[in-house]
């Protein structure tokens, strides 16, 4: 894929680059995803092109151009070649927004890249050129070679823009089309979570409002009923780092935990091994699992072992939710890496 600087039809100056040569004359219609405009004028380079969605991914050309983000998604029809008829008008608009020096620097960078391709001194994409020594003479104008040159560039948080695109994609993919009420309608991840919280509220009400699990818990604390959770708790020689709570809502979990702690404190004659234990550990590792299993068995009509298996499986998390969670983790890591590479950022000092 070759670099082709271009300009969109919007007022700002855009300098998208690596698009395919076949896309130059193509004028696809609208659609293909939401747009996230960084500001009134921003030079940019195209990193990828989706013919099916009729969109392009673009990165803003700036002093610290980094190819790692996937870029901003824009409609292909909003892009024009850099040498279009409206170039003069678009350049003037961009100059009024970011200053003549900034626009001149971007155009000089593109011209220097084209000159290198024409002479055969450089072969590669625009991003490869920017990262190579071939662009050093132009980049020094920003990084200290010309201290009297004041350039302004738009500030864009690519991770936040990608999060917004994820939300729009989910809304477009998961809303059922009109007239298809008979088909299964997929729910957005946040709606699935809300549906699970609503269902779990019945378990919370059974435990807290109706005290449905109190007798079962007292029998366990007093030693009248066996409990694998209590046995594992008494035999454990270290604090568990992760406890399966089944409940995902923090308010629901806090309500249940507070009630279970009260049940333990009001239980008469508990087992001797429980007299000196950590109450927080006892609630989370013994009483909470037993209360949840008891409520699941009562509300879903299961026996104890069937309810225990349901509890151990945990809440039904959809694969899309897992994928979105993984993407958020990667974006957070990318944010930290970008912040660490930012000019003037000092490395984290040693912990006290």
From TrEMBL:
Domain MUM1-like PWWP, residue spans: 45-106
InterPro entries, per database record: MUM1-like_PWWP, PWP3A_3B_4, PWP3A_3B_4_C
Region span, Disordered: 1-41, 162-187, 333-352
Superkingdom of the organism of origin: Eukaryota
PWWP domain span: 189-328
UniProt-listed PANTHER family: PWWP DOMAIN-CONTAINING DNA REPAIR FACTOR 3 FAMILY MEMBER, PWWP DOMAIN-CONTAINING DNA REPAIR FACTOR 4
UniProt-recorded name of the protein: Mutated melanoma-associated antigen 1-like protein 1
């Amino acid at each position: 894929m070759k670099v082709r600087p271009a300009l969109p039809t919007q007022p700002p100056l855009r300098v998208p680059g690596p698009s395919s040569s076949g896309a130059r004359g193509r004028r696809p219609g609208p659609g293909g995803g939401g747009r996230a405009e960084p500001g009134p004028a921003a030079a940019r380079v195209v990193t990828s092109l989706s013919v099916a969605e009729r969109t392009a991914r673009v990165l803003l050309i700036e002093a610290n151009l980094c190819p790692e983000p996937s870029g901003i998604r824009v409609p292909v029809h909003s892009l024009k070649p850099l040498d279009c008829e409206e170039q003069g008008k678009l350049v003037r608009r961009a100059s009024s927004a970011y200053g003549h020096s900034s626009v001149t620097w971007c155009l000089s960078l593109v011209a220097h890249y084209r000159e290198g391709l024409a002479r055969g001194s450089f072969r590669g994409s625009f991003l490869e050129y920017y990262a190579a020594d071939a662009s050093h003479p132009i980049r020094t104008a920003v990084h200290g070679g010309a201290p009297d040159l004041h350039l302004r560039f738009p500030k864009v948080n690519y991770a936040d823009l990608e999060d917004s695109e994820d939300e729009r994609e989910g809304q477009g993919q998961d809303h059922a089309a009109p007239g298809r009420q008979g088909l299964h309608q997929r729910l957005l991840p946040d709606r699935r979570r809300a549906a699970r919280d609503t269902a779990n509220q019945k378990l919370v009400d059974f435990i807290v409002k109706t005290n449905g699990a109190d007798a079962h818990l007292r029998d366990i604390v007093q030693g009248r009923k066996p409990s694998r959770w209590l046995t594992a708790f008494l035999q454990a020689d270290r604090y568990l780092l992760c406890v399966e709570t089944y409940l995902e809502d923090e308010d629901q979990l806090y309500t249940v935990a507070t009630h279970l702690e009260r049940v333990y404190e009001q239980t008469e004659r508990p087992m001797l091994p429980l007299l000196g234990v950590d109450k927080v550990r006892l609630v989370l590792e013994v009483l909470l699992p037993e209360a949840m299993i008891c409520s699941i068995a009562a509300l879903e009509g299961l026996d104890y072992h069937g309810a225990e298996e349901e509890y151990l499986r945990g809440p039904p998390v959809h694969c899309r939710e897992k994928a979105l969670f993984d993407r958020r983790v990667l974006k957070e890591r990318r944010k930290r890496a970008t912040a660490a590479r930012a000019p003037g950022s000092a490395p984290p000092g040693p912990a006290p």
